């Protein structure tokens, strides 16, 4: 059984937290959060890019784009992701949820 958690933080504390049993479900929840906020916190062109990525189902790219640009107009936010695979001796689900790991690396490197 997997458990993935995302927390969006800002200087004044946590702004969003979600947990899901799959990386794909967690991506959808984070994408919903950024879709609601991007028009208010990103420059219009960046917000349009995020909406376009979400509309095309590219949640990982939308998440990366949001966190690469948030803070340029208003307050900075950052994303913390945690994943736990239970019942797997290696500590990771075999082949599962690689996209969320890639999104995590993209967000951390931006």
Question: Strands, helices and their partners?
Answer:
Blueprint: E1 2-10, E2 13-20, H1 23-41, H2 44-55, H3 59-69, E3 77-85, H4 98-109
Antiparallel strand pairs: 1-2, 1-3
Helix pairs in contact: 1-2, 1-3, 2-3, 3-4
Note the gap between the termini: 30 Å
Task: Return the structural class.
Answer: alpha+beta
Contiguous helical run count: 4
The ordered H/E elements are EEHHHEH
Helix coverage percent: 40-55%
Describe this structure in words.
The protein is an alpha+beta fold and 110 residues long. The chain has one domain (2-109). The chain has four helices and three strands. The chain has helices at 23-41, 44-55, 59-69, 98-109, and strands at 2-10, 13-20, 77-85. A three-stranded antiparallel β-sheet has the order 2-1-3. A hairpin with a 2-residue loop joins strand 1 and strand 2 (13-20). Helix 1 runs antiparallel to helix 2 and helix 2 (44-55) packs antiparallel against helix 3. The chain is flat and about 40 Å long. It starts with a strand and ends with a helix. Residues 85-99 and 104-110 have low confidence and may be disordered.
Key attributes of the depicted protein:
three-stranded antiparallel sheet; alpha+beta; disordered C terminus; 110 residues
Q: What's the quick description here?
A:
By secondary structure, the chain is of the alpha+beta class. The protein has 4 helices and 3 strands; from the N terminus they run ββαααβα.
């Amino acid at each position: 059984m997997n458990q993935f958690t995302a927390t969006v933080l800002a200087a004044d504390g946590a702004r969003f937290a979600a947990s899901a049993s799959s990386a794909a479900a967690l991506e959808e929840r984070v994408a919903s959060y950024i879709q609601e906020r991007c028009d208010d916190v990103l420059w219009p062109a960046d917000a349009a890019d995020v909406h376009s990525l979400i509309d095309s189902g590219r949640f990982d790219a939308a998440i990366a784009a949001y966190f690469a640009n948030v803070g340029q107009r208003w307050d900075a936010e950052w994303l913390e992701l945690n994943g736990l695979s239970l019942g797997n001796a290696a500590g990771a689900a075999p082949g599962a949820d690689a996209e969320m790991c890639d999104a995590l690396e993209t967000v951390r490197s931006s």
